[in-house]
Amino acid sequence: MNTIITIARQYGSGGREVGHKIAEILGIKCYDRDLITLAAEKSGLSEEALHHADEKAASSLLYTLVMSSNMYHSNVDRFNVPINDKLFCVQSEIIRDIAQSESCVIVGRCADYVLAEHPRCVRVFVHADFESRVKRICAEHSIPELEARERIVKTDKRRANYYNYYTSHKWGKVENYDLSLSTDKLGTDGAARFIVEYAKTVYPD
Question: DSSP alpha helices (H): ranges in the chain?
């Protein structure tokens, strides 16, 4: 049976890096932005357009009301919905297919929710102190501190809106995850090793 590790993350916490390091330790694949390429191939939609819509909730107020903020369990014709919603549906199908075929790490895309029924899924939320995240973003993108702060607030808000919109759950709420850990003291290497040991303990081969 395949083991899946999903990584939800605050912007600047190093969560994406943690996900790729877990995959490297375990010798499995980490699915991240490449899910967009797979979604474009599956849907026939423009990859550029899907990148623009990635991890962003649809903006249609009427559609939100009709769908009660939860597209995932809907039977509405997917070809007549906003591209954000179609991307979520296509990515969800791809994530479920991947989980059936191989052990892997999946970063973002509400994967913890999409795989809620998967029997061997470790759901992780990676976070860090705000000031630590500011330093990381400044270093990674060579931008001023003020810009980093604004980017962190904006990105976290976008991710929270996306998760809350498509799952009807609350992003970052500890009850939604098996593990919630900070990279402040562990670092990304320590966090990756910790998650790997947890997964091996919970789901031994």
Answer: 15-26, 34-43, 47-53, 61-67, 83-101, 111-114, 130-141, 145-167, 183-202
3-class SS of residue 105: strand
pLDDT in tens, 9-52: 999 999 999 999 999 999 999 999 888 888 888 878 777 777 77
The CATH number fitting domain 4-202, selected from 3.40.50.2000, 3.40.50.300, 3.40.630.30, 1.10.1760.20: 3.40.50.300
Specify which residues 9 forms β-bridges with: 126
DSSP codes joined into one string, 51-67 = HHHTT-----HHHHHHH
What does the block give as tokens for 58? 């649809």
Helix (H, G, I), strand (E, B) or coil at 123: strand
Nearest alpha-carbon partner for 29 in 87, 94, 110, 102: 102
Cα 194 from Cα 65, distance rounded (Å) = 41
Two tokens at 185?
Answer: 């003291």
- Say what the pTM is: 0.85
DSSP label at residue 180: E
